[in-house]
Write a structure and sequence with these properties.
Largest sheet: 9 strands, mixed
CATH architecture of one domain: 3-Layer(bba) Sandwich
Radius of gyration: 22 Å
Strand content: 25-35%
CATH class of one domain: Alpha Beta
Order of helices and strands: EHEHEHEHHEHEEEEHEEEEHHHHEEEEHH
Structural class: alpha/beta
Distance between the termini: 47 Å
CATH superfamily of one domain: FAD/NAD(P)-binding domain
Helix content: 25-40%
Bound molecules: flavin-adenine dinucleotide
CATH topology of one domain: FAD/NAD(P)-binding domain
Length: 431
């Protein structure tokens, strides 16, 4: 049985950024990365399965000022990394669009609070919006209030390529692809990891398999008060109406991003509109065997059922989720969705939109069965020589900061060293 200091399970952007940070900035070299598919980043972090945005806290209008500050720091590591490595991103314009009196008022306040934090952002009026994104103004009512916060310096990132780059930059390391971890047990000072092909031992384990991490946490007796609300996000594709990312103002009660439109990071001729959120009983989109994984996690516990009923019976949720289900109706769905997109592109035609088949992912939103509430943001469970990462949006944007936090803990577990100063210096963002 091969023995490692650290085993990382899951080769998405979370697992690979931890591998990179360990290899480059610590004296731990005996590491293994285990992945169930035959490629790096085939699930949430794949280019097609997320919005490809570097969320840095400037256009996320549901964030508090404190959250904007912390996300800016956390996401700046990725901005710096992609600036230094070719082919992982494109710099594209980005705007937060406010439509109607109430939203315009909110945007002005939002901007006032953040103009020093994000000095590259500026407010632009109808005339300037028409210059930078003509389709946003074309066909819009003359008397409709409209304002936007705008920058040319947005980041569209291929998080799949970013994950591959982390692996390449890590140099020599054991990587076991097509190995699904079935079981993790603890035996004295080691964890025993059983995959479909082999069994190995590791002193420290990092479980970075998105929603599935919670299953192994439960298996080892951790965080039994947490379950998942899997929120799927799909997209419609259309012609190149917009040149940059156009985000809209957020409904504060919803944990998923407001609808936006943007060009695909690798194909500017395609615009993607979404995400369209709906609750699905599965952990991995388009993988129907993951319904079983969801049920194993859920186990029909009474408190879990009560929590989910309480959450989805909130009128804000169920109206939103039911309405979004309409968009799945073949042929008619795209016409219904076009009405929503009119806020961004008033002249959009349903006939120009196409349901993005195979595009989209699942956000593993955490639900606390004690409070029966959705817990926003990512979840990290730290156990005895083991860490579990569950990473809803913006998990990809903040992956290197997450890696920094995990690596600090890992060196503590093993009595090794982390050159955090060098990490911070190398990845300082020069915006
Ligand atoms: C619609 C949508 C839009 C999003 N947009 C953005 C965005 O614009 N910006 C942003 O920052 N974030 C965004 N996110 C969130 C982001 O995609 C995720 O936070 C991030 O990709 C999670 O990375 P991960 O490595 O934790 O998970 P994943 O990329 O899913 O990686 C987990 C890996 O674990 C593997 N695995 C699973 N089970 C096992 C097992 N038993 N054994 C071995 N391997 C296993 C999987 O195959 C996979 O490769 C979005 C999410 C959704 C759903």
């Amino acid at each position: 049985m091969k023995q490692y200091d650290v085993a990382i399970i899951g080769a998405g952007v979370t697992g690979t950024s931890i591998l990179y940070t360990l290899k480059k900035y610590t004296n731990i070299k005996n590491i293994v990365l285990i992945e169930k598919y035959d490629q790096i980043a085939k699930v949430q972090s794949a280019r097609t399965n997320n919005s490809q945005t570097l969320h840095i806290g400037d256009i996320e209008s549901h964030y508090t000022l404190e959250k904007s500050k912390s996300v800016k720091k956390a996401a700046s590591y990725v901005a710096s990394y992609v600036d230094a490595h070719k082919g992982l991103h494109r710099n594209i314009p980005k705007m937060l669009l406010a439509v109607g009196k109430e939203e315009v008022k909110r945007l002005k306040l939002w901007y006032e609070e953040r103009k020093e934090l994000f000095p590259y952002m500026r407010l632009i009026n109808r005339e300037e919006i028409a210059t930078v994104e003509p389709k946003v103004i074309e066909g819009r009512k003359e008397n409709e209030d409209i304002l936007a916060m705008y920058t040319e310096k947005g980041y569209a990132i291929d998080y799949g390529k970013l994950s591959e780059s982390f692996v390449q930059e890590s140099g020599e390391v054991d990587i076991f692809l097509t190995q699904k971890v079935k079981k993790i047990t603890k035996e004295q000072d080691y964890y025993i990891i059983i995959t479909n092909k082999k069994t190995l031992r590791a002193k420290v384990v990092v479980v970075a398999i998105s929603g599935n991490s919670l299953y192994f946490a439960h298996q080892l007796g951790y965080a039994k008060n947490l379950i998942l609300l899997p929120v799927a996000g799909s997209f419609f594709c259309g012609p190149n109406y917009v040149k940059g990312k156009v985000y809209t103002m957020q409904n504060h009660k919803l944990p998923f991003a407001a609808v936006h439109g943007d060009p695909d990071v690798m194909n500017q001729n395609i615009n993607r509109f979404g995400p369209i959120a709906k609750v699905l009983p599965m952990i991995e989109r388009f993988n129907y065997s993951s319904v079983l994984d969801f049920l194993k996690l859920f186990r029909f516990r009474f408190d879990a059922i009560l929590s989910l009923i309480k959450i989805v019976s909130d009128p804000i949720y169920y109206r939103y989720v039911l309405w979004n289900m309409m968009y799945d109706i073949p042929y008619f769905g795209k016409f219904a969705f076009a009405r929503e997109i009119e806020k961004i592109i008033p002249t959009v035609k349903g006939s120009a939109l196409k349901y993005g088949k195979g595009i989209g992912g699942i956000r593993p939103q955490i639900v606390n069965v004690d409070t029966k509430m959705v817990e926003m943001g990512e979840a990290k469970i730290i156990g005895n020589q083991i860490i579990f990462n569950i990473t809803p949006s913006p998990g990809a944007s903040v992956c290197l900061n997450n890696a920094r936090i995990d690596v600090k803990k890992i060196v503590e577990f093993l009595g090794k060293e982390f050159d955090e100063e060098k990490f911070n210096k190398d990845l300082a963002w020069r915006s």
